[in-house]
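Need a sequence for this fold. Nothing fancy.
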């Protein structure tokens, strides 16, 4: 009986890495819905039933004790429906607006996310709750998640063209903290920091891992192999090895 960690691709592996640091040996299964990647540009009316279907099949097969939705887009769209449909703890992932606002001296912060996350009302509710005195500039782009996938597989990437429109918005020159609203962006942190070392970049992976351990502390988890599944192209074993995950047969979603 393990923890299921779900993402549209490789982004949630950043959460797995954080869980490895905090709780080595935690039994888990990773599911990458890379057969439907990218999520960020798809309409909600297509994404919602698709996410419910994929996670429902994974729950039926894996019988997890809890599910981590390590995907900002899926969290903002599907968490309420998932919690209503399945009697399991669900841990979501949201842009770290709170920590970005807490560190900002200029009271001007940025949010990098997918278009789906930026357009969701939930982002505005986070801003209202955690950054009411800040100017918040958001940029939704499909490019960064694709770049993260490419970097994960060994490619050299340049994030400057994808990120620079955030700073050319009115007031963008005063941004001193940026919340990363997509777990894929964890893998681009070195590139972000090299591009603008004067900005504090806030990654959601560690807060999600901490919240996961808080939620599951009362659960009884048995030892189990740590595995990874996917809905599309199988992720190469050597790419999963640093996360202590072994690949399994793809999950069929039809």
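Here you go.
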């Amino acid at each position: 009986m393990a923890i299921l960690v779900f993402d549209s691709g490789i982004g949630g592996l950043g959460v797995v890495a954080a869980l490895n640091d905090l709780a080595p040996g935690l039994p888990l299964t990773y599911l990458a819905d890379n057969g439907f990647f990218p999520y960020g540009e798809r309409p909600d009316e297509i994404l919602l039933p698709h996410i419910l279907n994929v996670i429902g099949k994974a729950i039926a097969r894996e019988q997890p004790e809890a599910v981590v939705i390590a995907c900002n887009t899926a969290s903002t769209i599907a968490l309420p429906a998932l919690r209503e449909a399945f009697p399991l703890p669900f841990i979501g992932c949201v842009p770290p607006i709170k920590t970005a606002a807490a560190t900002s001296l200029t009271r001007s912060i940025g949010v990098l996310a997918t278009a789906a996350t930026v357009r969701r009302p939930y982002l505005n509710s986070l801003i209202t709750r955690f950054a009411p005195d800040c100017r918040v500039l958001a940029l939704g782009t499909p490019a960064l998640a694709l770049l993260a996938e490419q970097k994960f597989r060994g490619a050299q990437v340049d994030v400057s063209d994808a990120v620079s429109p955030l700073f050319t918005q009115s007031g963008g020159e005063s941004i001193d903290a940026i919340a990363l609203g997509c777990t894929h962006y964890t893998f681009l942190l070195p590139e972000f920091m090299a591009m603008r070392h004067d900005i504090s970049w806030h990654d959601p992976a560690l807060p999600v891992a901490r919240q996961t351990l808080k939620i599951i502390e009362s659960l009884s988890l048995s030892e189990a192999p740590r595995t990874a599944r996917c809905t599309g192209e199988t992720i190469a074993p050597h790419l999963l090895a640093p996360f202590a995950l072994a690949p399994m047969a793809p999950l069929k979603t039809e």
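For context: Residues 44-62 form the longest helix (19 residues).
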